[in-house]
Amino acid sequence: MSQQSQVRLVRRLWEALAERGLEAALQLTEPDVEWIPHAAGGRVLTSKELLDFFEAFQGERHMASARLYSLAPEGDLVLASGSLRLKGGGGISEFQIHFVYEFEEGRFVRARTYATRAEAQEAIAARRASE
Fold it and tell me: Which domains does the chain possess?
């Protein structure tokens, strides 16, 4: 998969998330993709487990919007920064999130999230140094 194709896939994931929710975004991926949200303490989740995790994370809130701010391809990685807005439970909460999407042999295989862009960039730099 070319870098352009990788970027297109990540953009489509965010568009599906924004328009139809997490389940719709996950339908664009293979079932064996690994999801490693920073809020899950390093646990590797399947798509089903990610849905369950996000449902518990939302609590009585629901996702009101997902906004992609930037995409930066780095070889077989794509750094995506954006925000998620949750409504309900007496208010609105919005948080920034930074994904590093990993591709191997043209396949999307893993996504890790980071609380800050700097942490995501450090992870990319560490991976590059180990190659």
Answer: 3-130 (3.10.450.50)
